[in-house]
Amino acid sequence: CALLLSAALYVLKVFKESALNLPPGPFPLPIIGNLHLLDIRRQDKSLMKISEKYGPVFTVHLGFQKVVVLTGYEAVKDALLNTADVFADRPAIPIFYHIQHGNGVFFSSQELWKTTRRFTIATMRDLGMGKHLGEERMLEELHFLIELIKSFKGGPFQLRFLNMAPTNITFAILFGKRFDYEDPTFLT
């Protein structure tokens, strides 16, 4: 009887949470949420498989934590450019916090992110940098970063490379030149 009551209360809680206007996603199990759907070694592939059913924007439950997942270039671009303020209050992403300690344009969150983003956009515009040039530089740097990560053939690599790519984009936009990741000047 107690088990049936607990199950009923859990189902009611999940339906109440669905009224929060979160995107659809797989139904969470008690306590573990959707963790059973994720391959710990290849979370990216697991999330892409979920996106096949629920689309490029969906919600998963990692235990008790609700997470909105964006998959694909268009979904991320739309979120960051067209609805950026909606995502400004997101909690810090642990790996990015580990890399940048919550600072910077790319890895900060909440009010710091809003302020830094506004400052950066205004400054770039004042320097004559349009959106097209920024996208070009980002795609170029992404190509270099992907090639670098591929060179490790699935093995571990230093997280500093993820920190260096955004810095390199900024240098390329401001100075017209990107640096090699091993360049001593860039490292300094």
Automatic annotation (TrEMBL):
Transmembrane segments: none annotated. Its cofactor is heme. It is found in: Endoplasmic reticulum membrane; Microsome membrane. Gene3D superfamilies: Cytochrome P450. It comes from the Eukaryota. It holds the Pfam family p450. Its main location: endoplasmic reticulum. One of its GO terms (biological process) is xenobiotic metabolic process. The keyword Cytoplasm does not apply. Keywords: Endoplasmic reticulum, Heme, Iron, Membrane, Metal-binding, Microsome, Monooxygenase, Oxidoreductase. It is a peripheral membrane protein. GO terms for molecular function: heme binding; iron ion binding; oxidoreductase activity, acting on paired donors, with incorporation or reduction of molecular oxygen, reduced flavin or flavoprotein as one donor, and incorporation of one atom of oxygen. GO terms for cellular component: endoplasmic reticulum membrane. Belongs to the cytochrome P450 family. PANTHER family: CYTOCHROME P450 2W1 (PTHR24300:SF291), CYTOCHROME P450 508A4-RELATED (PTHR24300). This is Cytochrome P450 2W1.
